[in-house]
Write a structure and sequence with these properties.
It comes from Bombardia bombarda. The protein is 37% helix and 19% strand. By secondary structure, the chain is of the alpha/beta class. Strand 2 and strand 3 form a beta hairpin. It is globular. The protein starts with a strand and ends in a 7-residue tail after the last strand. About 12% of the residues have low confidence. It binds S-adenosylmethionine (SAM). The site of S-adenosylmethionine has 21 residues, from helix 2 and helix 5. S-adenosylmethionine binds next to helix 2 and helix 5.
């Protein structure tokens, strides 16, 4: 039986990844029930409840990091936008080159481990139920397309919809073109593209018409409603966010009780020192060079490897997920290829923490 970790068990006080220890210290975590925030729909301030800790509310002037540099949260958003606007057209080709195609295997495994379209807890003999999947930082669509294929084709469940959300219109534009070129009409009809900052899903910009059915027509802000999502995925996106706790808080808000947060992200290879040394040499030596030769953009790929280096360890990130109110099973993560990437999952509890 896996053990469950929850915020109620976390009385260890200050903890966090190395960076956030320096920049955004955590305080005691035991009372963070974040699911009840109900923001004003026309407010410029992201939603927060009386228990939302300050560090989980975006603050444009708060220090964070951009690769190895310290910048403000607002500046990071601008600079990350610059990176992904610059790499959008070459993004898919570069992914294959930099990872020797491994990113495809990791993504396949991530999606099959979530088995979209199949809900074993659905009452009755048929385990297929309607599902709304929100793919955050969905970029050019790799995860969303796999989700739809597994749900519609493998699990024969056409009642699964996917919303691809990303802050960057250039990445979404490549994704929309790919969807038109590669997906059957039925899957195209089940996909919605929205532009949004993962740290504030109360203000999104739908790019496809008609807008996704889950949007609350009574608000002009296209706020993704509380408890409207069955499965929240984010792949290779979260390390780029300016305020990760804010994004986790939003994930918790939009998920239904029992809904799943699932993240695929680069991680740490520290448990295998020799492999780690080879991997670091490859990352810092070859990837910026490949970026320069293939995409004519060394700086963006230098940022990419630095951002991987600065991302929290598997354990620290697991603790951030727990701190946002999710429960995790077992150790809370699964290493892929020795920890080059890792999958983290958390469930929004069906019952609010006391
Ligand atoms: C490395 S790409 C990953 C794309 C896709 N998920 C995949 O696995 O191929 C990272 C994506 O994160 C997006 N992103 C960065 N900051 C974001 C934010 N604050 N909110 C939403 N998306 C963001 C970028 O625009 C980019 O498309």
């Amino acid at each position: 039986m896996p053990t469950l970790r929850s915020s109620a068990r976390l009385s260890r006080g200050q903890f966090q990844c190395q960076l956030q220890k320096r920049i955004r210290p955590f305080s005691s975590t035991s009372t963070r029930a974040l699911s009840s925030s109900s923001p004003s729909s026309n407010s410029n301030t992201p939603p927060r409840s009386s228990t939302t800790p300050d560090y989980a509310t975006p603050d444009p002037s708060r220090p964070t990091h951009f690769g190895f540099e310290t910048v403000t949260e607002a500046e990071k958003i601008q600079r990350v936008a610059g990176v992904f606007t610059s790499v959008a057209e070459s993004y898919d080709r570069m992914n294959d080159l930099m990872s020797f195609g491994w990113h495809r295997i990791w993504k396949d495994h991530f999606v099959s481990s979530l088995n979209p379209g199949f809900s074993p807890l659905t009452p009755g003999p048929d385990p297929r139920a309607p599902q709304h999947i929100l793919d955050i930082a969905g970029g050019t669509g790799d995860i969303a397309f796999r989700m739809l294929h597994t749900a519609h084709v493998v699990n024969a469940n056409p009642d699964v919809r996917v919303t691809i959300s990303d802050i960057n219109p250039a990445m979404l534009s490549v994704g929309r073109q790919r969807a038109q070129d590669q997906l059957p009409a039925s899957q195209q009809a089940a996909i919605t593209f929205v532009e949004a900052n993962a740290e504030d899903l109360t203000r999104t910009k739908p790019l496809t018409s008609p807008p996704a059915p889950f949007f609350d027509a009574s608000t002009a802000t296209n706020r993704i409603p509380d408890a409207s999502v069955d499965l929240y995925t984010v792949a290779f996106g979260i390390r780029n966010f300016s305020n990760i706790p804010a994004a986790l808080r939003e994930a918790h808000r939009v998920l239904k009780p029992g809904g799943i947060f699932a993240c695929l992200e680069f991680s740490k290879v520290d448990k295998h020192p020799l492999f780690n040394a080879v991997y670091k040499r490859w990352s810092f030596g070859a990837i910026p060079l490949i970026g320069q030769l293939v995409a004519g953009d060394r700086d963006s790929y230098q940022y990419l490897v630095e951002s991987i280096e600065r991302f929290p360890s598997q354990e620290d990130f697991r603790d951030m997920i727990v701190d946002a109110g999710f429960v995790v099973g077992g150790q809370g993560y699964e290493d892929l290829t020795g920890g080059i990437a890792a999958i983290h999952k958390g469930m929004k509890p069906r019952v609010k923490a006391a």
